[in-house]
Amino acid sequence: MKRDTGQNRNITDKWRLQTKLVRGGTYRSELGETSESMFMTSGYAYDCAEDAAARFEGEQDGYTYSRLRNPTCAMFEDKMALIEGAQCARSTATGMAAMSSAMLSIVKAGDHVVSSKTLFGSCRVFIETILAKFGVSCTLVDGDDNEAWKNAFRPNTTAVFLESPANPTLDIVDIEFVCTVAHENDALVVIDNVFATPLLQKPMEMGADIVIYSSTKHIDGQGRCLGGCILTSDEIMDEQILPYIRHTGPNMSPFNAWVMLKGMETMDLRVDKMCSNAVKVAHALRDLKVFERVNYPGFSDFAQRDLVEKQMTAGGSVVTMFLPQGREQAFKFLNALEVTDISNNIGDAKSLMTHPASTTHKSVEESARLEMGITDSMLRLSVGLEHADDLIEDFARAAKIAGL
Ligand SMILES: *Cc1c(COP(=O)(O)O)cnc(C)c1O
User: Fold this and answer.
1) How many distinct helices (H) and strands (E) make up the chain?
2) Ligand 1 centre and the CA of 96: distance in Å?
3) Contact predicate 192/212, CB 8 Å
4) Spans of all domains in the chain
C-alpha cells in the first residue's frame, strides 16, 4: 500500500544527487501525503503493554520516545545519510550540539585530541577549554602543515577534529592525509564540513569517520532554524554515539527537522547559485583594488588551490577580505551596506557580512585569534542568492563611503 521508495537504500543509493535531495528518506503515512509530515509528538502509544515491552526490548520495530527517534527527524537523518554516503545519521538541536556530542562520545578523561588551529569560535573554545575540564588535552596544529599533523599524535590520542575550509580564514586541510595519519595512530577523525556543505566535499570518501554539520547554514539555507547533524558508520553510531546522545538529549525538534527537509529539496539549486554568485562577487571585490587582500578558495591563484581542486568541486559561498586599516574602517564599510546585512550567519539566501574578531570569534582570546589570522581588518562575507550585480554595486558604494 505504501510507496516508501524514499526509505529503501537499495533504490535510493542509485539515484543522482538531485533526486536524493528531493525524494530520499521520505516516509509516507497511509494518507499518502506528498510533502513530508510533521510529527510533533514526544511519545507514542502502544496497542498493548506487551507491545511496549517488545519495543523497548528491540524485538518490535517502532517508535518509543522522541528523544530516541522521531519520524520527521528520521526522514531528515535518512536523507542526510544518503547525501553524505554515510550509513546513518542523527540530528541535533544545533551545529554545536552535533560537534560537542560527537566529540564527547568518542573521548574519555586522559585522552588527547589533535585539531587544526583555525576553527569556528565555539569549536575552538570547546576543543581547548571545555574538553580540558573533563581531562582531555589537545594539541593544535597549523592545518596546512602536514608534518605538524604527523608529529602531534601521542599514544593517548583518540580523536582528530578539523574544519576545511575553516571558518573564517578559509584555510584548507589535506583531509586524506590527515585521515591516513590518524588511522595509523588509531584515532577517529571528526570533520566539520559546514563551509563545504555535503554537496561540494565528501569527507567520508577521503577517510573521515564522523562528519558533522550545522544545518543552520546551507541546509536550512533560509535563516529560519538552528540544527545540526552527526553522520557516521552503523558501528560508531551504535557503539559510541547513540549511548551518549540517547542519555543526554541534544535532539533536533521535529519542527526544525521538517524545515530542514524542505530546505534540502532546493539545496542543490541554492548552493550552486551561491557559489556562482561568490565567484562573481569575489572577482569584483578584488577588481575594486581597495582591499589589501580578498580571499576565496575559488580563485585560480588561491594559496591552496591544488588541495581545493583535489577535494572540493567548487570554492563555496564564503569570501573574506582585509581592509587596509583596522576595526574602525571595517565598521564604516559594514555600516554603509544597503543590500548585504550585517549578520554573523552563513549559507543564508540573504548575503550576510560580519567582522569575525568582534562577533563569531569574540569568545576566542585575542592571541589565539591573531594566531588564526583573524585580524581587526578582516571581514567575512556569505554570498546569498541576490543578483550578483546588486551586491557588487553595494560593495563599491560602501567602499567609497568608508574612504577606501
Ligand atoms: C555555525 C558553525 C558551527 C555551529 O553551528 P550552530 O548551528 O550555530 O551551533 C560549527 N562549525 C562551523 C564551521 C560553523 O560555521
Assistant:
1) 18, 12
2) 6
3) yes
4) 9-265, 267-401
Scanning 237-348, the segments in alpha helix (DSSP H) are: 242-248, 254-265, 267-287, 305-311, 327-335
Take atom 1 of ligand 1 and give the residue whose Cα is closest.
214
Q: 267-401 maps to which CATH number?
A: 3.90.1150.10
Domain 9-265 CATH (choose: 1.10.510.10, 3.30.470.20, 3.40.50.1820, 3.40.640.10): 3.40.640.10
Which atom of ligand 1 is least distant from the CA of 119? Answer: 13
Does ligand 1 lie within 6 Å of residue 121's CB atom? no
pLDDT digits (tens, 9 = 90+) for 238-280: 999 999 999 999 999 999 999 999 999 999 999 999 999 999 9
CA-closest residue to ligand 1 atom 2: 214
Which SS3 state, helix, strand or coil, does residue 382 take? Answer: strand
Report d(CA 32, CA 46) in Å as an integer. 23
Would you say the CB of residue 352 lies under 6 angstroms from ligand 1?
no
| Per-residue pLDDT tens over the stretch 190-212 | 999 999 999 999 999 999 999 99
* pLDDT at residue 2 tops 60: no
Q: Could you tell me the distance, in angstroms and rounded to a whole number, from the CA of residue 357 to the centre of ligand 1?
A: 16
The CA distance from 198 to 402, in Å, is 37
Mutation to probe ligand 1, out of 214, 215, 229, 348 (largest number of atoms < 8 A from CB): 214
Other Cβ atoms closer than 10 A to 61: 7
Going by C-beta distance under 8 Å and a sequence separation of 6 or more, which residues neighbour residue 166? 116, 118, 119, 120, 143, 172, 173, 195, 372
**Which residue lies with its CA nearest to atom 4 of ligand 1?**
95
> Which protein residue's CA is at the shortest distance from atom 11 of ligand 1?
120
Question: Can you give the pTM of this predicted structure?
Answer: 0.97
Angle between helices 327-335 and 388-401 (to 10 degrees): 130
Best of 197, 217, 346 for a ligand 1 pocket test (most atoms within 8 Å of beta carbon): 217
